[in-house]
Amino acid sequence: MDESNYWQRFWRRRLSRRRVLRAAALGGAGLAAAAVVGCAGEEKEATPRALLSPTVSPSPTPFVYEPAAYRGGTLHLPGYEAFVSDTLDPHQTEFGPVYSSHSAVFSKVLRYEDIERGDIVPDLAEAMPETPDPLTYIIRLRRGVRFHQPSAVLGRSASAEERAVGGRELTAEDVKYSFERQMNEDSPRRALFRRAHHYQAIDSIEVVDSHTLKIRTKRPTAPFIHFLADSNAFIVAKELVDDSDQMNRQEAMLGTGPFMWDELKPLRESSFVRNPDWFGWGEPELERPYIDGYKSHFLFDDASVEAAFRTKKLDVAFQVNNPQWVIKLREEEPDLISVDKGFAAWVKVAFSVDQPPYNDIRLRRAIHLASDRQQMLEAFWQGYGKMQGPVGWVLKQWALPQEELLTKPGYRLSKEEREQDEQEARRLYEAAGSPDLKVIFADLPPYIQQFAPQYKRQLEQVLGAKVDYDIWTYPQISAGSARGEVPFVFAYDNGWMDLDDWLYPYFHTDGPKNESGLSDPTLDRMLEAQREEFEFAERQRLGYEIQRYLLDNVLVRLDFVAATWLWVAWPYYRNFRTTPFFGNSFLMANAWLDQSNRVWGSRP
Amino acid sequence: MQQYIVRRALLNVLVIFMVITMVFLALRVTPGDFAVRQAGSQLPGHSAEEATEIVRHDLGLDKPMPKQYWEFVSGLFRGDLGDSFVSKQPVMQELKERLAPSIELAILQIVIAIMVAVPIGIISAIRQDTWLDYILRLFAIFWLAVPSFFVGVLLLYSLARWAHWSPPITNYKGFFDDPLLNMQAMVLPAVAGGLATGAIIMRFLRSQMLEVLRQDYVRTAWSKGLGERAVILRHALKNALIPVLTVISLLLAIVASGNVVLETLFQLPGIGFYVVNAIQQHDYPVVQGVVLVVAAGLVFVNLLVDMTYAWLDPRIRYG
Amino acid sequence: MLAGQERAAAEEFVLPRRPGWLALVGRFVRRKPLGAFGLAVVLVMAAAAAGAPWLCRYDAEEAFRVANPAYLPGSVEPEERLDSRSGPSWEHWFGTDQFGRDNYSRVVWGARRSLGVGLGALLFAIIFGTTIGIVSAYFRGWLDMVVQRIMDSIQAFPPMLVLLLLVSLTERNLITLTMGLGFVVITGAQRIVRSAVLSAREDPHVEAARAIGCSPFRLMAVHILPNVAAPIIVIFSIGIASVILAEAALAFLNLAPIEPPSWGMMLDEGRRYMTSQPSTMLVGGAAITLTVMGFNLAGDALRDILDPRIRLT
Fold first, then answer.
1. Greatest CA separation for chain A
2. Are the C-beta atoms of A602 and A312 separated by less than 8 Å?
3. C266 touches chain B (CB under 8 A)
4. CATH fold label, C57-64+77-311
5. pTM check: above 0.80
6. Subunits that touch chain C (at least 3 Cβ pairs < 8 angstroms)?
């Protein structure tokens, strides 16, 4: 366990703002270093049958990249990138797979190199921002970063958008525009910018020269570095945004990232090609990406994915519903690259506390205790996942440690403890007046609606309640919650990368995702305190306190479980990375296809 | 006869308009439209209504209903079905790309169905109540009863697992681009769906054949000393086919639009999956466009079938 | 002498006794073994549907738990886990599904749902479809034209789309679903009936009846309707089969009400883990297949028996 202490200390030092620069330099150097062959992503987590391992696995080691021996080839992956759920606009979309596509095409000021370790490194910036004081960030951009010119590579004539923007250099003005766009109160689409609250922490942006920016925040904001690296923090060109402040056209998807968007065939596939003029994260001599491009195929059926993967029409795969085929495949083909990676999206219940009977915490606690999380894990993902507290378990540095979580009522596993919890649930329910309950279930993913009768039964049995339910689509739920019709919702939610995002937007009185009507001054103070705490250990401690407070006193959002995905990849896919959430496709800039591998020959 | 065709054609156009109008109204009457979906979660101080209004205005949904309808109809005459709310691409273009695979699949399924059904139906009818008849009927009924998506899943999985072959899921090519690849993609869903359809046709054909074979004119043909083949093919089959054509035209409707699950399983870029998604996302222009095209196709196919009736059964004359 | 001869003759001449119902059944089974099998299946399913509360061993939604083999005292492993995706056993004849529910009980309840929906939809469809078909074909001319065009416009709606639209526009409700399914069958039913009536209309006995001045209503009800009985029976058997399949397809796509259990939903849930435990999927699929087969076989046999022309040979 010395190793974990070392890494904890190392990482704590990194986030201390005075050491940020030095740590970034270290991290960057480590990435570029030649590496020992063959340690591509081995992170086997808990054994399949156990719900979780007895000890929390130590912080993962940083990924070590192999130098590329071959160039060329196109990667084929399964995914949802070809499904345009709401919009193509990088600042207005909420749909994970779409901003995965954006993350390959557009660049950000900073980016995540490793989410679980919290490693943030420079992307468009030359180095991590200088912070002369807690409110000021000085960002120096790299020079020679140019917008895409796909017509040359793809052999098409240049679109109007490309003629406007292609080949021009990205400057500080673009960064300023991208940030101000999202905080613009006068925009006709101001209500649609998903991460606007990140940018509202900014007080002013000053363009010092063409490649330098000075940003001042209104208050000390510890997660600000994270905001600059977050999923929607893309830098776009002003020319590509139309008069109604939308960038929703395929032709406008021109950025500065390692890949260029070739073609989007809705519900079929999305294809990307290598950007030959990519700035290469300060190492253009490597001439990354090594591959010619990648294609994401819209497959969401285990039978189809397995069939395609076995015949090498896909280079990578993961389970859609049933992990058994992946396990069997791993046994049959021991050479496969196998990674188990937790996923940040999770299943939860949301209450509206401005309506009876859900304004009574006794009732909420009763429901919290009655919910059987173990049953959900088994039912949804055959046990592959973990129970979740207010912060996603994949964020090991922020989430309440599993050992502590499992001692909390509602999360306890042993039979007698479960019985105690259930008895307490009934007692509380009766104390709250035994009201009738109505639950609204989301219709996707399918296992949520299929679980509805089970959950109803569980509540009826444990609480002795009369429970009714209905199944609505997400748009119906949005419409209904605006009218106050959905006080008890069982649904699925996006995953977040930083402590702040898991808590502040949902629980602060002014939080943008606070749809429950919660307003708790103590909690507000704690949330603001964590937001302003730059010292990692202290911030972590504050985070733990908030989570404990939420579990003991608030219970406005009940957090249940989150899945583990079992990934497999053919061994010729080198530098294969998995991440706990969408929006990290730029990591494929380091991928290369090993044509000397023995199974390469059978690849179609 | 000419007059009849013209009258029918004009009435068909009227029918299509009725269909379109019904769909248009039905879509707009429902709660939870596309604008709400795009609106999603908001900032404090901005209501859900505001965001929804922005999007609705962009899509032209805030105009009064009659105006929207007029714009839609006048667009039709220009061949413009509007732009998809989701992808912002012209619906006409997306439809054109997606229509071919669905039609091809439907045709292949019907061809397989007919190839299987006609000989089996005839044999079963002329050898009524023999063991062969029983076995064939059981076989037919089995294939009719098994859900086609069940068959599809089993086929896909077993071929991948044991023959290490899977259809070209990741790169579909149209029939005219690469016939061999296209057939590989089509064979499994065509078989999975075609057998079920074939069973239905076979049974109906058999029952019609049985009726026809008892008719007087058939007995006359027997007594004239004609061989079995001549009797069946020249005299009986033609009359038995009439109601069967009805069933085929009925099935065309079911097959062309009901291939949603097979299209999804085998990744065929057809209209089935496209339109299901559009319905769930409340993408009105797409739904309207698909319904228009499919309705038009079906209505004219029905006309063709009625024409064929008249040709086959001289007793039926339209005037 | 004559009296004696008469008496002898009388003794020899014995009127055939009307066969008892048992003999009739026996004759049916011997003459139409497939039909008998089909009828047996239908009766079993109907019995399951009617007697579901008594035939089920457990509640259809109850989740079962078993001891966890990975449990160690003091570890964080739970003592019990869901008995999910287990194969056939003495406690669970058809195994369990992913929620640990007993598949046998779910199949039996599923019979009630499928048959209820199927019968309801078909009754709806046949009553309306037959009436429309006969009236339209009998009167021909303008009435026929108008009615057929209206039917065409409804039929021009691809059935799957109608169902999908219906499901997304209305609440998830079994009654609405049944009526929607029935509605989709009406147009097809009336078209088949109409084509049969068009042929039957020219039959000599119908012309004769018309010649002697039968009222149109009497003509349709008494003379034409029996000729149409055979197609109606075929429609019923094909129809109920396709309605059960369509309902299964909707449940498969997660668009149908969740309770009571549906075979289509068992098929969908089961296929997600079919490579590790196929029993749920196979049981759901087999139930659909058997029931649909049963209705079709029985319908065939009944048609063969009832059609007067066949009985003459």
1. 72
2. yes
3. no
4. MetI-like fold (1.10.3720)
5. no
6. A, B
